[in-house]
Amino acid sequence: MPPEVPAGEDAHFRALESLYAAAPINGLFDSRLTITGPGTSRIAFTIEPRHFHAAGAAHGTSYFKMLDDAAFYAANSLVTDRFLLTTAFTLLFTKPLREGPVTAEGRWVSGQRRVFVAEARLIDAAGEEAARGTGTFMRSRIPLATLAGYRPNT
To answer: For the Thioesterase domain, which residue ranges apply (predicted)?
Structure first.
């Protein structure tokens, strides 16, 4: 029996996950995106010593990247035709991230037409929040269907 092909909303979610995996920047991180439902996302990733700053904890670029990605994909899960662009992002660091597994949880907050607001938080291996952020995202002119990694029927 052939594998079941996702349809509708589920196909869009799986295509966004494929798009995330295909982005060259994600070769720098051991990470996996899951769209958990409309307006929600989760990224499981691992902080490694190569992500550290000089004082032995994760550099802020790791925080920003994962928070931005989680919020972005939560928002883009609600948009099936266009790629969204981050227009602003505010980030709050609450504790240092050390080596080990981390989860970024994204959640859509508002907006349904042109501008979307979404937030995300980082949860460390002990279950504690390490950072949170809020971003605004707007529709671009880039159709999702034109992006090589976006594969809605695979």
So the answer is: 56-130
